[in-house]
Amino acid sequence: QVQLVESGGGSVQAGGSLRLSCAASAYTYSRNYMAWFRQAPGKQREGVAGIYTGTSSTYYADSVKGRFTLSRDNAKNTMYLQMNNLKPEDTAMYYCAADCYSGAWWHGNYHYWGQGTQVTVSS
Predict the structure, then answer these.
(1) CA 65 to CA 28: how far, in whole Å?
(2) Contact yes or no for 57/122 (Cβ under 8 A)
(3) Sheet containing 4-7, strands listed edge to edge, beginning at the edge strand earlier in sequence
(4) Other C-beta atoms within 10 Å of 24: how many?
(5) What does DSSP assign to residue 43?
(6) CB-based contact 9:21 (threshold 8 Å)
(7) What is the pLDDT along the chain (123 residues), one digit of tens a residue?
(8) End-to-end Cα, the chain, rounded Å
(9) DSSP 8-state symbol, 14
């Protein structure tokens, strides 16, 4: 059973915007943390934004603060990542994750992962 499905990636010019979606099963949507990660070729996976579902507190990597916004639609069991003022360094495969089993939200220790959606930002 597929638990997380991302969509919304694409190619944009620097300064543009994209909105990523992560459709979840009801089970995974209710887990403790959900988050967005990204990985560029030759680089380590990076936590971009996370949400503690108990309080809806959101967290962001310094590199995206003020540009990216994580939100959720409870009626649709869907998490979003609104990305504005995109930069070439935002180019990466973006993954959503759910159910953090250890460590901080950005450590990447999640039970469930989506298949990823590519974001490419040209200068």
Answers:
(1) 26
(2) no
(3) 4-7, 18-24, 78-83, 68-73
(4) 23
(5) S
(6) no
(7) 668 999 999 999 999 999 999 999 999 999 999 999 999 999 999 999 999 999 999 999 999 999 999 999 999 999 999 999 999 999 999 999 999 999 999 999 999 999 999 999 999
(8) 39
(9) T
Could you give the 3-state DSSP secondary structure of residue 76?
coil
User: What are 69's strand-pairing partners?
Assistant: 82
Q: Which two tokens stand for residue 114?
A: 């989506």
For Cα atoms 106, 53, 46, give the angle at the middle one, nearest 5 degrees: 15
Find tokens 């909105």 and name the residue: 19
Tell me the DSSP string of 49-65: EEEETTTTEEEE-TTTT
Write the single-letter amino acid at 116: G
Strands 18-24 and 33-39, bridge-based pairing: unpaired
| Rg from Cα positions in the chain | 13
Query: For residues 4 and 39, what is the distance between their CA atoms, to the nearest angstrom?
Result: 17
